Amino acid sequence: MMTKKDILSMDLEQLEQLLKEWKEPKFRAKQLFAWLHEKQVTDFAKMTNLSQSLREKLQAETKISALDMVEKLVSKEDGTRKYLFALENGSVIESVLMQYDYGNTVCVSTQAGCRMGCRFCASTLDGVERSLTAGEMLSQIYQIQKDLGQRISGVVLMGSGEPLDNYENVLRFIKLLNDPMGQNMGQRHMTLSTCGLIEKMYDLAEQQLQITLAVSLHAPNDEIRKQIMPVAKANPMDKLLQSCQAYTDKTKRRLTFEYALMQGVNDSDACARELASRLRQMLCHVNLIPMNPVKERAYTKTSKAQVQRFATILQQNGVETTIRRKLGSDIDAACGQLRRRYMQK
Fold it and tell me: What is the largest CA-CA distance in the chain?
């Protein structure tokens, strides 16, 4: 059985090459790219400026990675929307729409599940099924944009999966999302979150993208980090912070360090002071996260007072710090929660 080409994952040059092989004129590639990424049409029959024969060939030999919406939850607290999408093979993934005064941002999944094993995250409970294609990542944005009826202005790769564990597809996704002929989203409106795969971070630095890199740190030292993040065993903090410094030196972009506060684990005053001592000389800021509780995990959230105290200690020690606004707590908005509930039905 012939495997259909994933056409939504192709850039303009690849479309030109494909149509050249089919003896089609070069300008058809731009028309097709516009249908896919500007107009976001998922039915070849509706691409009316393409010839009937070309539409039939596209239908027969290619596919558009459109996802099926399985479920949508809307927070009564803040309007956050959480989507559950079905992939072609029946796997499910999550995406989250967050609405801010400055625009609409989508949190995108890069894998079905995750193999990083972070102890406080629901995404890792069942491991990883597979990585997503660039087209499947784009489709999350396109589907949500249609459902909302408004333009999506920002994206964070912070859903299920480790983006740098799906490196090539994520780079292709960023390129396609940034393309002026498509969504034309500026790279500075994109954030990639990684738990710290050091070698891939060096590779990413070489790309010199203008995205924001967010590193999930969640601890001030290896002792605590190894307890909650197995990835720390192969990516020790000293070397991780060296790679972070190299990244900022190469790209001139400020890093974000994500830090989910867990009561009695990583939220003490001593943790705050140790973290500040490691980060105060870096071009960075810390994003403190009051974690959404996950019923399968034993960790509990830190009190609001201690979150604020932790932030104050960092700020007093020269580390720029923000506290993330908690969104969607009434709709299982933490990574992997909705997907896992659906899979257990």
Answer: 69
Cβ contact 154:178 at 8 Å: no
Give the number of residues written for the chain: 345
Q: What does the DSSP 8-state code read for residue 10? A: -
| pTM, rounded to two decimals | 0.92
Q: How far apart are CA 323 and CA 84, in angstroms?
A: 27
Instruction: Give 41: exposed, middle or buried? Use CB within 10 Å, 0-12, 13-18, 19+.
Output: middle
Q: Picking from 51-60, 111-120, 163-172, which range would have the lowest pLDDT averaged per residue?
A: 111-120
- Fill in the amino acid letter for 85: F
Q: CA–CA separation, 258 vs 197, rounded Å?
A: 15
Q: Which has the higher per-residue pLDDT, 344 or 33? A: 33
DSSP annotation of 112 reads: E
Distance CA 168, CA 21 (A): 24
Indicate which residues carry an active-site annotation. 94, 335
Measured distance CA(76)–CA(328) in Å, rounded: 8
Contacts of 129 (CB under 8 A, 6+ apart): 91, 111, 112, 113
> CA quadruple 33, 37, 41, 42: dihedral positive or negative?
positive
Whose tokens are 């900022």? That residue is 248
Say yes or no to pLDDT of 341 above 60: no
CA distance 326 to 75: 12
Q: H or E segment at 12?
A: helix 12-21
